[in-house]
Amino acid sequence: MRSFLIGLLLAGALAAPAAAQTSDQTSPAAKPADEVKRIVEQTYNVQVLRVTEAALEDGTAVYKVAAMMPGTAGNAAFMVNTLTVDAATGLALPPFRHHAAGYSLPQGGSYEPNRTSNNPAVARGHTWR
């Protein structure tokens, strides 16, 4: 039994450097912004307006892609959305990050109502509740 455990430990110690080398070699390089733009336009049938480099909280390289729906999309025509796209694969990432204790919401943005004087609801005397 003791020799079996020693053999397992020795095999694990020898396999660790090999696993580290293969993970470094298989890590894909980031795609250029033009290629990500082409992938998003073909996959989602949208017009890409802007592609910006960014990083997630864990340091993963991503692109923030501003995409506009086509004029033939009915009520969603010309709607602009920002997608977070993985820089290595060109695929869109989900907006929620699931964790063991729940999920985290995307950071940034404001959910406060527009209470400026340019807002027509304010000019009408709308009561904010």
Describe the structure.
The protein has about 130 residues and is an alpha+beta fold. It has a domain at about 35-95. The protein is built from 3 helices and 5 strands, in the order H-H-E-E-E-E-E-H. The strands form 2 sheets. A 3-stranded antiparallel β-sheet has the order 1-2-3, covered by helices on one side. Strand 4 (about 95-100) and strand 5 form a beta hairpin. The longest helix is centred in the first third of the chain and has 25 residues, at about 1-25. Residues about 20-25 have low confidence and may be disordered.
Distance between the termini: 71 Å
The general outline is extended
- Spans where pLDDT lies below 50 across 5 or more residues: 18-27
Relative strand content: 15-25%
Please tally the helical runs, counting DSSP H or I stretches of 4 or more residues.
Answer: 3
The whole-angstrom Rg is 24 Å
User: What strand line-up does the widest sheet have?
Assistant: 1-2-3
DSSP summary, beta strand count? 5
Please outline the major beta sheet: 3 strands, antiparallel
Q: Encode the helix/strand succession as letters.
A: HHEEEEEH
Whole-number mean pLDDT = 75
Give me the secondary-structure category.
alpha+beta
- What percentage of residues falls in helices of 4 or more residues? 25-40%
Keywords: Signal
Region (Disordered): 107-129
Signal peptide: 1-20
Protein name: PepSY domain-containing protein
